[in-house]
Design goal:
The complex is a heterodimer of chains A (427) and B (387). By secondary structure, chain A is an alpha/beta fold. Chain A folds into two domains: 8-181, Rossmann fold; 186-423, Rossmann fold, CATH 3.40.50. Chain A has helices at 8-25, 27-30, 44-49, 57-66, 70-79, 88-98, 124-136, 155-177, 183-205, 220-223, 225-228, 235-253, 284-293, 321-331, 338-351, 366-369, 372-383, 402-423; strands at 34-36, 53-55, 114-119, 140-144, 271-276, 296-301, 356-362, 387-392. In chain A, the strands form two sheets. Chain A has a four-stranded parallel β-sheet with strand order 2-1-3-4, sandwiched between helices. A four-stranded parallel β-sheet of chain A has the order 6-5-7-8, with helices on both faces. Chain A is globular. The two termini of chain A are 34 Å apart. Chain B is 49% helix and 11% strand. Chain B is globular, with a radius of gyration of 20 Å. Classes of the chains: A alpha/beta (427), B alpha/beta (387). Chains A and B meet through α7, β4, α8, α15 and α16 of A and α5, β4, α6 and α13 of B.
Chain lengths: 427, 387
């Protein structure tokens, strides 16, 4: 496959990521402490208050998936008794440890100083860090974020999270880092977060324009990168979103679509889709190509909300720092109940004037996947737009069947065409 | 005086009745009665009882029910219990159930709570999230309020207030139930040939489909009958079974393990009636008492976080030693995230403690028992020969 053509924002992000990996792998030289934590419920601003570098095992697994090394790591973990049935992010991470634990910059990952188990929206997180704790024997700080089973958060949930932050997480991070917590420092970072969040939301909402200047799924995973990982709260993330906004605006001005990996603007957009579920990472470009080859652009997605639902109005609030972190954790997409997810997706289909909902159902991820067939039926019923279902996995190449997915996509696009002919107009 | 065979036959009839006729009859006995279904692993049944409702354990469809509709809701890589639970719902077998509680087990059961809200909007349903922080001032405060919300939900459903004394009375009855359950388990551990697990299992499952007062009497009757009856003692090994706390194995699998030469002297099947390991105090604030019991005196299972690394698996090792098991069978449902993610950690601890183990997977409708018999039989032989 040819070299990927990268825009300036992508290059900026690449630099940021590289810098963070260097910060992680140089901890013994710099004396900085390293935390491992998760994308949903990521408390990056809080970690920054203690000068702790943020390492995200999910992102490492994605990197390994895209670099096509996750398959071996997964098999390594399975060889050591990890079931073929469970999450492949976990097995890719554990298998990587078994194969030398080498970071994408080629240097070995140091052991983390703390596991910040921000337990938001995914059961597996709890076991993942129990498994890592068994290996690293390092302090583990659990932040339990209750699930919004009734479709909303309650004062009790919020108070519970704030209390854990005050009495478990902050004292724990003080102990690990030797740095005293300064709430004003946190407020400053949260100000930066809110500004960058405005930028991200603006970009994602441009999917409403025709032709869409963004791809909210395949492109979207780049747009959310800084926000969902180690950069929320940093000045660099504001710079990144300013740059991204400029690029998107330029495409709007030129009536252009998003730039595909081969460097051409994707203008001939025949189908507008909302996508639910994470992407497949091992065959990411191949998967994306199946869409743009057929003229399908993704105008909104749920995966780009997994690290926070900013488009629903939430912003980190420097005036209520800890409460705001609690609200952020509670509101992540997979912490919302199924009826709420149906509401969100149906709203996307309508507001983004999509042709329908496509679900990429991920074998590894029950948090997303359990109930998706019901979600599809409900969204179809509410919007009158057809839904479709493809299956793959996060980082296990054994579960990516290109022919199968391509066939299903082609059938889906035919179904959309038929629906259009039936109603006598394009969406 | 009933015999074990008579008691077991009654339990088996209840267990096999997927129309839940006994619970329907209970409801029909008096106007206004409500039935509340609950899923594994743990729900404070005292709260349902205190509301004057019948707690009804919904543990999937077992191996006797064909799942037709339920499969349309789930991908092939998701366990079976949610699909058979949906099958029970859409086929009208739960049409008399007024409320459903989905406790925290994993993301599949969590998401099933949302499916239920969409499919059965007229049924009161609740996702019940127990704390993963075990500090009374943090997780305890949260949990007391969650119990209060559960209480209010039940009050709205039934139209009657639940007083503190109502809850205390229920706690007393469930304390008695837990004591008797522990007695049955202790009896089985002492003399497993007198209380086969296939019987004990049915006795426990039946208890989740009847009033606690009735189950308490049944447990007493079973203990009396089992102590009275002579049964041949076989040259079996003693094993503990873990990993089966949510989706249940078919009864034939339980029997197969026994037939393969294993006395099961400890298990985590249908754990709800053993989840709390000590009596819940009946004085003071009853919600605080239930919360503290959960935080301080509950079993280690895969749906609970273990705050300290050194404590992981300790519960299992201590339980194995206490009941005198010679080995562990880690038997998990296919695609069960909690049990399968925990398996490497628990088996490491067993190995460190010198406890032999084997592991296999099943589904609630597994039909082929020959491989299970072979595995369990080989394990039993190896324990006899080399342990």
């Amino acid at each position: 496959m040819s070299e990927v053509i990268k825009e300036k924002s992508m290059l900026l992000q690449k630099e940021m990521i590289a810098k963070n990996y260097d910060a992680i792998t140089s901890k013994h030289e710099t004396g900085r402490k390293v935390s491992s934590t998760f994308v949903p419920g990521n408390l990056n601003e809080l970690l920054m208050c203690f000068g702790i570098v943020n390492n995200l095992p999910e992102i490492n697994a994605i990197q390994n998936g895209m670099r096509k090394v996750s398959g071996n790591y997964i098999m390594e973990a399975e060889k050591h008794g990890h079931s073929e049935d469970v999450c492949t992010y976990v097995k890719a991470d554990i298998g990587m440890m078994g194969k030398g634990n080498i970071a994408p910059n080629g240097k070995p990952f140091p052991d983390p100083d703390v596991l910040l188990l921000s337990y938001t929206g995914c059961y597996t997180f709890m076991k993942w860090f129990e498994l890592l704790r068994e290996q690293y024997k390092c302090p583990t700080l659990m932040l339990h974020v209750p699930y919004e089973g009734d479709g909303h958060s309650t004062k009790n949930m919020r108070d519970y999270i704030v209390k854990q932050l005050k009495e478990v997480i902050i004292p724990g991070l003080e102990q690990v880092s030797g740095v005293k917590f300064d709430i004003d420092r946190l407020r400053e970072y949260l100000k930066n977060s809110a500004k960058a969040e405005d930028g991200l939301v603006w970009c994602l909402e441009q999917g409403k324009i025709k032709p869409s200047p963004i791809d909210a799924y395949f492109g979207g995973v780049y747009y959310i990168g800084p926000m969902f990982t180690a950069f929320r709260g940093t000045p660099e993330s504001i710079v990144y979103y300013d740059e991204l906004m400029k690029e998107v605006q330029a495409r709007i001005d030129n009536k252009q679509g998003p730039v595909t990996p081969d460097g051409t603007p994707f203008n001939d957009q025949k189908y507008r889709l909302v996508v639910e579920g994470p992407p497949n990472w091992t065959n990411f470009r191949e998967f994306w190509k199946m869409f743009y080859d057929e003229g399908a652009v993704v105008v909104a997605s749920s995966y780009t909300k997994v690290g926070g639902m900013y488009d629903l109005g939430f912003r980190h609030d420097p005036d209520n720092p800890l409460e705001s972190l609690a609200d952020y954790c509670l509101g992540c997409y997979t912490n919302r109940n199924l009826p709420t997810r149906v509401d969100i997706l149906a709203k996307y289909v309508e507001e983004y004037e999509a042709d329908g909902l496509l679900i990429n159902s991920i074998k590894s991820c029950n948090s997303f996947s359990a109930g998706q067939l019901m979600i599809m039926k409900e969204v179809e019923k509410r919007t009158g737009k057809p839904g479709a279902f493809v299956e793959s996995d996060l980082v296990d190449p054994r579960y990516f069947s290109a022919a199968n997915i391509k066939n299903r996509l082609e059938s889906y696009f035919q179904m959309i065409e038929q629906k259009r002919r039936g109603t006598g107009k394009a969406a | 005086m009933s015999s074990t065979a008579e008691i077991t036959a009654r339990c088996q009839a209840l267990f096999e009745d997927l129309n839940f006729s006994a619970a329907r009859a209970w409801k029909a006995k008096a106007p206004g009665r409500k039935v509340i279904g609950f899923l594994p692993v743990y729900v404070p049944l005292e709260m349902i009882h205190a509301a004057g409702c019948l707690p009804l354990g919904i543990f999937g469809g077992g191996d006797q029910m064909e799942v037709i509709h339920g499969d349309a809701y789930y991908q092939s890589y998701i366990c079976r219990i949610p699909r058979s639970t949906i099958e029970l719902g859409v086929t009208g077998r739960l049409d008399f159930v007024d409320g459903m509680i989905f406790p925290f087990v994993c993301d599949v059961i969590r998401n099933l709570s949302g499916i239920w809200k969409m499919m059965f909007p007229n049924v009161w349903s609740k996702f019940f999230d127990t704390p993963q922080n075990f500090d009374p001032s943090i997780g305890g405060t949260y949990y007391v309020q969650e119990l209060q919300e559960l209480r209010e939900g039940l009050e709205t459903l039934t139209g009657r207030k639940i007083s503190d004394d109502d809850i205390r009375r229920s706690i007393k009855l469930y304390n008695e139930n837990r004591r008797l359950v522990r007695e049955v388990y202790a009896f089985r551990a002492r003399e497993p040939w007198r209380a086969p697990t296939s019987e004990v299992y049915l006795l426990m499952r039946a208890g989740l489909m009847m009033e606690v007062e009735e189950h308490n009497q049944m447990l007493r009757d079973y203990l009396d009958a089992a102590a009275r009856e002579d049964r041949p003692k076989r040259d079996n090994v003693r094993v503990a079974i873990y990993g089966s706390f949510c989706e249940q194995p078919p009864l034939n699998l339980i029997k197969s393990v026994e037939m393969a030469g294993c006395y099961v002297v400890e298990d985590d099947y249908a754990l709800v009636n053993r989840f709390l390991t000590e009596d819940v105090p009946t004085d003071g604030d009853p919600l605080e008492a239930l919360a503290l019991a959960y935080l301080k005196y509950s079993v280690e299972t895969s749906c609970k976080y273990v705050p300290k690394e050194e404590d992981k698996g300790r519960f299992h090792v201590e339980a194995v030693r206490k009941c005198g098991a010679e080995g562990v069978i880690y038997a998990t449902p296919s695609f069960c995230d909690p049990a399968l993610l925990d398996r490497p950690m628990i088996t490491h601890r067993l190995a460190d403690a010198g406890i032999p183990y084997i592991a296999f997977k099943y589904a609630e409708n597994s039909g082929q028992m020959q491989p299970i018999r072979e595995q369990a039989g080989t394990f039993a032989d190896s324990l006899k020969l080399w342990s």
